[in-house]
Write a structure and sequence with these properties.
There is one protein chain. The chain contains 12 helices and 16 strands. The protein has helices at 15-31, 64-85, 88-93, 95-109, 123-145, 151-160, 165-185, 188-193, 195-203, 226-229, 250-261, 285-307, and strands at residues 43-46, 51-54, 57-60, 113-115, 118-120, 209-212, 269-272, 311-317, 324-325, 331-341, 347-355, 361-365, 371-373, 378-387, 395-402, 405-413. By secondary structure, it is an alpha+beta fold. Strand 9 and strand 10 (331-341) form a beta hairpin. The N and C termini lie far apart (96 Å). The chain folds into 2 domains: 3-202 and 282-302, no CATH class; 311-413, Immunoglobulin-like (Sandwich), CATH 2.60.40.10. One iron/sulfur cluster (SF4) is lined by residues 91, 211, 230-231, 233, 235, 237, 245-251. One iron/sulfur cluster is lined by residues 213, 221-227, 238, 254-255, 258, 267-268.
Length: 424
């Protein structure tokens, strides 16, 4: 771009785009628990049923391998994003940064100056700021819990005073931790404590997107210090790349604004690597290998989720009702059966029992027909298996069907030693 064409009053700034990204992510995080996909939250970990609701799919604890696959996929997305874009996540998308920006904005609205660790302003204004932080912390904590308890149920229970003590305790602890973070820790978290920042330092290489003032631009610098004053991490970008930099782009905007007054372009810019290798630097073996691994993992995960069984059945001899011989010689064996509907919607099932040796159906009592189970729910049943007098086959197969389709089976055995029953 020719220096003479620079408009002195309207430099192209990244700040508005960064704020749009932050608002978008905040709205998504706030609104997501309120939506439903297939009757369930798009993303919720339900401790009561030990299952993860994931965009219309319900993954139960028995399908832990799928949850691990999902976590691994997310970890690879982060690794790849960090390798290619550095700490762009920290500066543009991370909730911690957004909360800090919001906390500083609240301070400015109340005429309280926050400069690093130093906070100045009238006592009553500082008190109001603390109240605002507490309210914000409560909202964030509630939003966090909505990923474990449906927001409608949560708010109703909170309003009526019937919120479970453990949920109430979690709400109180989360609120206090977030308040402590906003009131005292703030950017120190990104500088010193956040493990992601440490990982990023280890991952960055000469192709990672970074923000700096190229050495060739140094002679044009007027040493105004605007890039340092605006930095939330107290970095002097003129000294070169520093690991605390969260790639937020504030210094870039500040420099562009200063230099626009002189009808010159800014000195600070994003480049792939400090050597400005261009976007082709991303086509390096490390990134290509990680991309291939991510795509493979995502494909396996999606195929495994889509093709998994719609329902499962588990069977065990009943602990509460001992099996016995009826006076007419027939055998009654009691089983505990668990049928799990893995679909997101309610479904009707049929359960039957078959002698493995003969292939003939056996009389099964106590089973509703059809068995109606809500999406993602597990239904326990106590059933009785009545076998004819003199029956010899002990191996039984329980068969779960829907619409005439066989979905799942479970094997069981009739108890061999049976006491004589005294009644019917
Ligand atoms: S804002 Fe730009 S011109 Fe001013 S000190 Fe920083 S790099 Fe130099
Ligand atoms: S150096 Fe620039 S990009 Fe890095 S944290 Fe400071 S203002 Fe943001």
């Amino acid at each position: 771009m020719s220096i003479s064409t620079i408009n002195a009053t309207t430099p192209h700034l990244l700040g508005p785009w960064r704020r749009r990204c932050q608002w978008l992510i905040t709205l998504i995080v706030l609104a997501l628990p309120w939506f439903t996909v297939g009757g369930q939250s798009p993303l919720r970990l339900d401790f009561a049923t030990l299952s993860l609701h994931l965009f219309g799919q319900t993954l139960r604890i028995e399908e832990l391998y799928l949850i691990l696959f999902f976590s691994l996929t997310l970890a690879l997305v982060f690794l790849l994003g960090t390798l290619a874009l550095g700490r762009v996540w920290c500066g543009w998308l991370c909730p911690q940064t957004t909360l800090n920006d919001l906390a500083e904005w609240l301070g400015r609205c109340l005429s309280v100056q926050i400069d690093g660790r130093r906070v100045t302003g009238a006592a009553w204004r500082q008190f109001l700021r603390q109240c605002a932080y507490l309210l914000l912390s409560l909202l964030v904590a509630m939003n966090l819990l909505w990923y474990f308890i449906e927001p409608q149920r949560f708010l109703k229970a909170l309003a009526s005073g019937t919120l479970a003590p453990v949920a109430f305790l979690a709400l109180a602890i989360c609120t206090l931790v977030i308040y402590f973070d906003l009131a005292l820790i703030r950017r120190l978290m990104c500088k010193e404590f956040c493990p992601y920042g440490r990982i990023q330092t280890a991952l960055a290489d000469n192709a990672t997107l970074t923000l700096h003032r190229p050495a060739a631009e140094a002679p044009r610098c007027i040493e105004c210090g605007a890039c340092v004053r605006c930095c939330p991490m107290d970095i002097d970008i003129r000294l070169g790349y520093q690991i605390e930099c969260i790639n937020c782009g504030r210094c870039l905007d500040a420099c562009r604004q200063v230099m626009a007054q002189r009808r010159e372009p800014g000195l600070i810019r994003y480049t792939f690597g400090t050597e400005d290798l261009g976007w082709r630097a991303l086509l390096n073996p490390k990134i290509l290998l990680l991309t291939a691994a991510l795509l493979t993992l995502m494909t396996i995960f999606v195929v495994a989720v889509v093709r998994r069984q719609e329902a499962t059945v588990k069977v065990a001899l009943s602990h509460t009702a001992p099996s016995r011989l009826l006076p007419d010689g027939r055998r009654v064996t009691f089983f505990s059966v668990w049928v799990n509907n893995r679909l997101a919607v309610e479904k009707e099932f049929e359960l039957a029992a078959i002698h493995v040796a003969t292939g003939s159906a056996i009389n099964l009592r106590g089973v509703p027909s059809p068995i109606r189970i809500a999406g993602g729910k597990n239904l326990p049943l106590e059933v009785a298996l009545v076998t004819a007098s003199g029956a010899t086959a002990d191996a039984i197969e329980f068969v779960l069907t829907t619409d005439g389709r066989k979905l799942a089976t479970a094997n069981a055995e009739i108890a061999k030693e049976l006491p004589q029953a005294h009644g019917h």
